[in-house]
């Protein structure tokens, strides 16, 4: 038989002791010598002096001696009084110490044996540890204390003190259930005490190991809700001999129960018996509790032990029922609950009984997703959620579960009440069967870095949009919105959440923000991963009340998701089998439904007439955008397309649409608009093959659509034509002439690279001046370069707007002023950045090439003198000879030059003197004579030009190949002409000289 009190040592076991009693004071002895000494001294002094006054000293001795005796007695009595006061104080301290140690001992006893009241109040979790049942508390009362006080009492108070120290009041009085415990008294009181005993046994007995045998009566129906089954190694029988109904185990003999004092054996039977009379109890009970009143009882034990008064431990029927249901939830969560009905191996979604819902309401998203032991498993993201966490290893049926869940939602609710945004890092095949449902706003697969940034901005914009809708409606959450306001609940499903977060950690903060604010805004997360443990942030999991775990490999993963290891024990051959906790702490085993063809078809048919849900996450920009599709593409994405409408020439200050811009932070697309009056000139930067020419054509086409084709000028063609056009534009800007609206320059960084240095620098200066001065005249420049640093800083800074096409590397893009996060290695031609946004440039017709204007023919008139400076005199002379004239070659001798001039005098044909720069320098005298009168023709380069022409200005640029030359008539500025010349005989050379000169002067 178990003892009545706990056998463990108390918290404080140091012994105490009674203070020693004070001893009686000793009786003082009479000081005889102290009396005789003064007498002898006084007699001696009298004998010597003869003075009678000396005898007075003889009297002082006895007086002092008697006084000292009385003083010693007084001091003894004082010491005795002080000793008694000190002993009383120490006794008070001892009493206080006994109380303190009794309180510690009492608390330790109740911790070891919790009262039934603390159990039903749910202050103590079930102590399921297996093995035999421990002793149970039948009440509180005095038990033997472990406190030891040494010393012998001297009076009744000390004897009472020792008795008080040996007894611990208000301690748990225990009984061994294996020895049988009977409760006798008025039926309500006896039942309450028996309920308390059964609660304690269920608190310690492990479900599945402890088997209960209960009476078939209404008073014990609450016990049937306990998680303990009818089989187990340990058994507990409850006999009710006064309930009016036959107990289930009435036929069992009383010998089935017996003492289990060793505490290590297993397989015994405990007994709790209830009766109104002691005679009705079965014989052999080791403990009988007589309950007289709610606060009064006594315990009787065999062996002549006197009855002990106790305050009985009782439990009400309602408290016992609530505790039984709570214990069942704990058992199910721990995976030790009694096995329920066997689940089917396959559940078809179309055959499940779905809950009756209001399709027009935003207050619920309840839908059956599988079968549990008690029937269809219904999950409601609104009431159970707002978010869900789904775990499952490969082959566990995780993706099929998500597909069934979404299909069930689509069948039950229209797109204006629930929408899906699906992210699948396994390629998107899992959600392919529901892609065409109007609820699906998009299926995103395998994001790249650019798309991940779009995802972050789009989801944040969706939260801001929903906040604005609620604020404008004056609603606290989405449930409070009027039915006419368009705002569907958004279910964001991420399959393989772990892979997404590992690749793009920045998305974790957005998901955490949605998890924190999604309930009121109507945004729900369903995050699926093979191993969520350690991947999903704590602030996310804290808001994921719905936990689903299909088969996982590690027990820790199962514990982290659903709080039980059961998901790790699911057999591999049962896909779809899982454990779900819907937020109530109750782990339920279920079989996930399979989305069959009938369910998918039903979802499509149920929403065939509904409009598609609003898209919070737009698809990436198309790789090709035609100008005729700009308006439709912008409007379909929620943007304003007014800027794409046709405009008249009066709209000078308006912008020109050059592409389609992606604005994920506003959940829309817009027109990439270049407004020259505000933005300045346009510079297009991009690597070879990025679409620079197409971007220029888009800008040219936009301007031509408003101001006409003639308003656009392409600076292209032969370099002589480019030179003339560039200087003609600059002259028109400075002189107030007619100017085009747009000048297009492709490959500005290499356009003049092959030109001579003087011309290259002059051309760049002219372009810079055109950029600087042309804006005031309404002339705009759009130029393209492959690298921005290929231009000088002054020229580069003159461009106010930049369109950044694809660059070879991310760093190149950043150096050009772009956003590195938008760089992608596989961007299509025309993909660009404009004002920090991703843009796809519109496709445009190639710009027409400028017409090639022929140069003036060089005509050598007969009768005149022509000085030709050529780099190659032989070739020049041959060309002149072929034209029909006789060239005169000069050398480096002055006499030869003089004779050549004399020979030409009066000649009817043209006199053509040919020499190189050195020859003319040697014949400087002749050059000086003919420089003002002769026609000077230069066929060569700068050295030949400087030989005879003293003009320091650059002459017009010649094309490569030698087909052009310079000519100066009568000291006029040099002009460009075709080479070789033609001969025109003129006998009246002198008379017609002025006319011939005028005919060769350019008309500019």
Automatic annotation (TrEMBL):
Q: Which PROSITE patterns match?
A: FTSK (PS50901)
Q: Which InterPro entries match?
A: AAA+_ATPase, FtsK/SpoIIIE/SftA, FtsK_dom, P-loop_NTPase
Q: Which SUPFAM superfamilies match?
A: P-loop containing nucleoside triphosphate hydrolases (SSF52540)
What keywords are annotated for this sequence in UniProt?
Answer: ATP-binding, Membrane, Nucleotide-binding, Transmembrane, Transmembrane helix
Among SMART domains, the record links this protein to: AAA (SM00382)
Q: Which Pfam families match?
A: FtsK_SpoIIIE
Entry annotated with the keyword RNA-binding:
no
Region annotated Disordered sits at: 241-263, 976-1004
Can you give the residue ranges of the FtsK domain?
374-559
Q: Which residues are ATP-binding?
A: 392-399
Please list every transmembrane segment annotated in the UniProt record, as residue ranges.
Answer: 29-48, 54-72
This chain belongs to the protein called FtsK domain-containing protein
The species is Agromyces humatus
């Amino acid at each position: 038989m178990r003892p009545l009190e706990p056998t463990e040592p108390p918290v404080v076991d140091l012994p105490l002791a009674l203070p020693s009693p004070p001893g009686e004071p000793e009786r003082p002895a009479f000081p005889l010598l102290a009396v005789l000494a003064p007498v002898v001294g006084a007699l001696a002094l009298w004998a010597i002096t003869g003075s009678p006054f000396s005898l007075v000293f003889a009297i002082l001795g006895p007086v002092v001696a008697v006084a000292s005796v009385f003083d010693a007695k007084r001091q003894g009595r004082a010491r005795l009084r002080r000793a008694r006061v000190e002993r009383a104080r120490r006794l008070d301290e001892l009493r206080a110490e006994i109380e303190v140690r009794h309180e510690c001992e009492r608390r330790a006893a109740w911790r070891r044996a919790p009262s039934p009241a603390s159990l039903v109040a749910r202050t103590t979790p079930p102590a399921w540890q297996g093995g035999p049942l421990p002793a149970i508390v039948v009440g509180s009362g005095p038990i033997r204390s472990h406190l030891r006080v040494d010393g012998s009492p001297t009076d009744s108070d000390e004897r009472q003190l020792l008795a008080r120290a040996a007894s611990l009041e208000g301690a748990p009085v225990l009984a061994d259930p294996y020895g049988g415990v009977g409760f006798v008294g008025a039926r309500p009181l006896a039942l309450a005490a028996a309920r308390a005993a059964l609660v304690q046994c269920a608190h310690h007995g492990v479900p599945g190991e402890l088997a209960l045998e209960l009476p078939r009566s209404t008073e014990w129906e609450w016990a049937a809700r306990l998680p303990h089954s009818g089989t187990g190694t340990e058994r507990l029988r409850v006999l009710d001999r006064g309930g009016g109904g036959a107990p289930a185990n009435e036929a069992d003999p009383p010998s089935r129960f017996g003492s289990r004092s060793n505490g290590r054996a297993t397989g015994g039977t405990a007994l709790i018996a209830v009766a109104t009379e002691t005679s009705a109890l079965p014989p052999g009970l080791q403990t009988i509790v007589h309950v007289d009143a709610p606060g009064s009882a006594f315990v009787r034990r065999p062996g002549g032990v006197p009855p002990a008064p106790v305050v009985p431990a009782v439990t009400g029927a309602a408290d016992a029922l609530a505790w039984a249901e709570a214990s069942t939830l704990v058992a199910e969560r721990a995976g030790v609950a009694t096995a329920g009905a066997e689940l089917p191996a396959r559940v078809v979604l179309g055959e499940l009984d779905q809950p009756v819902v209001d399709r027009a309401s935003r207050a619920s998203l309840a839908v059956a997703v599988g079968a549990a032991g008690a029937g269809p498993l219904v999950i409601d993201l609104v009431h159970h959620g707002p978010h869900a966490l789904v775990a499952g290893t490969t082959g566990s049926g995780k993706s099929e579960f998500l597909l069934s869940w979404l299909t069930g939602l689509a069948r039950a609710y229209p797109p204006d009440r629930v929408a899906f945004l699906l992210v699948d890092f396994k390629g998107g095949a899992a959600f392919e069967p529901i892609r065409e449902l109007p609820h699906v706003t998009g299926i995103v697969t395998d994001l790249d870095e650019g798309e991940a940034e779009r995802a972050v901005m789009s989801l944040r914009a969706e939260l801001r949009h929903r906040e604005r809708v609620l604020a404008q409606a004056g609603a606290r959450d989405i449930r409070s919105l009027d039915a006419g306001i368009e705002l569907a609940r958004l279910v964001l499903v991420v399959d393989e959440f772990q892979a997404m977060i590992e690749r793009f950690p920045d998305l974790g903060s957005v998901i955490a923000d949605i998890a924190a604010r999604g309930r009121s805004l109507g945004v729900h997360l369903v995050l699926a991963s093979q191993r969520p443990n350690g991947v999903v942030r704590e602030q996310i999991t804290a808001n994921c009340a719905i936990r689903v775990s299909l088969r996982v490999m590690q027990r820790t993963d199962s514990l982290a998701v659903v709080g039980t290891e059961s998901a790790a024990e699911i057999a591999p051959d049962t896909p779809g089998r899982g454990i779900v906790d819907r937020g109530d702490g109750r782990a339920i085993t279920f079989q996930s439904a399979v989305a069959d063809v009938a369910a998918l078809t039903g979802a499509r048919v149920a929403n065939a007439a509904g409009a598609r849900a609003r898209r919070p996450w737009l698809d990436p920009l198309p790789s090709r955008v035609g100008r005729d599709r700009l308006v439709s593409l912008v409007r379909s994405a929620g943007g304003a397309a007014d800027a794409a409408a046709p405009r008249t020439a009066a709209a000078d200050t308006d912008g020109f649409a050059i592409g389609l811009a992606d604005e994920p932070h506003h959940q829309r697309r817009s027109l990439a608009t270049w407004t020259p009056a505000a933005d300045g000139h346009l510079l297009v930067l991009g690597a070879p093959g990025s679409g620079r020419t197409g971007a220029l054509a888009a800008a040219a086409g936009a301007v031509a659509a408003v101001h006409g084709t003639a308003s656009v000028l392409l600076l292209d063609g032969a370099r002589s034509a480019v030179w003339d056009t560039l200087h003609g534009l600059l002259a028109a800007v400075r002189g107030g002439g007619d100017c085009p609206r747009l000048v297009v320059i492709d490959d500005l960084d290499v356009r003049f690279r092959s030109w001579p240095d003087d011309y290259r620098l002059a051309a760049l200066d002219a372009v810079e001046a055109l950029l600087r001065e042309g804006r005031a005249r309404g002339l705009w420049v759009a130029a393209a370069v492959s690298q921005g640093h290929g231009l000088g800083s002054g020229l580069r800074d003159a461009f106010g707007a930049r369109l950044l096409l694809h660059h070879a590397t991310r760093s190149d893009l950043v150096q050009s002023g772009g956003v590195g996060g938008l760089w992608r290695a596989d961007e299509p031609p025309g993909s660009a950045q404009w004002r920090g946004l991703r843009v796809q440039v519109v496709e445009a017709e190639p710009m027409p090439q400028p017409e090639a204007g022929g140069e003036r023919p060089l005509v050598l008139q007969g009768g005149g003198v022509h000085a030709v400076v050529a780099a190659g005199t032989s070739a020049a002379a041959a060309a002149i000879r072929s034209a029909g004239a006789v060239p005169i070659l000069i050398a480096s001798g002055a006499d030869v030059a003089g004779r050549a001039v004399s020979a030409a005098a009066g000649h009817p044909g043209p006199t053509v003197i040919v020499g190189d720069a050195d020859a003319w320098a040697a014949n400087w005298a002749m050059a000086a004579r003919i420089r003002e009168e002769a026609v000077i023709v230069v066929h060569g380069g700068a050295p030949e030009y400087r030989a005879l022409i003293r003009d320091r200005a650059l002459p017009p640029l010649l094309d490569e190949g030698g087909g052009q030359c310079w000519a100066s008539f009568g000291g006029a500025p040099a002009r460009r002409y075709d080479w070789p010349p033609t001969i025109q005989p003129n006998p009246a050379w002198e008379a017609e000289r002025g006319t011939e000169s005028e005919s060769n002067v350019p008309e500019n």
